[in-house]
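Good morning,

Attaching, inline, the C-alpha cells for the sequence recovery test we're adding to the shared suite. The designed sequence is right after.
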C-alpha cells in the first residue's frame, strides 16, 4: 500500500451515557486514542464528531431547539463524511451510529477494520 487512507474511527459517543457530559467526553477520548496509531501507520484519522460538533454549535438557534436536531446532524454528517473515507475502524461498544457507519462502509465496499492491528501500514519509498 502506498496511498494514505482516510479512516473513519467509529464507536460509542453518546451511547450508554444518558447524556452525561463527562461520560460523553470519555467516549470521545476513547475514539481519539486511535487517531495517533492510525497516523503513525501513515493514514489520516477522522472522527465524525470532529466535524459534526462545530456544525451543531453554528446551526440556527431554532434548529438547535429541535430535540432530534443533534442526532440528525451527527448521523447526516457521518453519512456525508463516509462519501470521502477509504475505510472504517469500528471500535468496541454498543453504538447504533457506529453500526450505521459500518453498514454504509460495507455498502460502498470499503474495508472495515475491527482493530488497529488489521490496518495496513503505508509503505514509504
Amino acid at each position: 500500500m502506498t496511498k494514505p487512507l482516510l479512516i473513519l474511527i467509529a464507536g460509542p459517543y453518546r451511547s450508554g451515557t444518558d447524556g452525561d457530559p463527562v461520560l460523553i467526553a470519555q467516549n470521545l477520548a476513547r475514539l481519539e486514542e486511535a487517531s495517533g496509531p492510525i497516523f503513525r501507520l501513515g493514514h489520516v484519522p477522522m472522527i465524525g464528531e470532529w466535524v459534526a460538533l462545530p456544525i451543531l454549535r453554528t446551526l440556527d438557534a431554532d434548529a438547535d431547539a429541535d430535540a432530534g436536531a443533534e442526532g440528525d446532524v451527527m448521523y447526516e454528517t457521518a453519512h456525508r463524511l463516509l462519501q470521502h473515507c477509504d475505510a472504517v475502524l469500528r471500535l468496541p461498544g454498543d453504538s447504533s451510529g457506529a453500526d450505521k457507519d459500518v453498514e454504509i462502509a460495507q455498502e460502498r465496499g470499503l474495508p472495515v477494520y475491527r482493530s488497529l492491528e488489521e490496518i495496513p501500514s503505508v509503505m514509504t519509498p
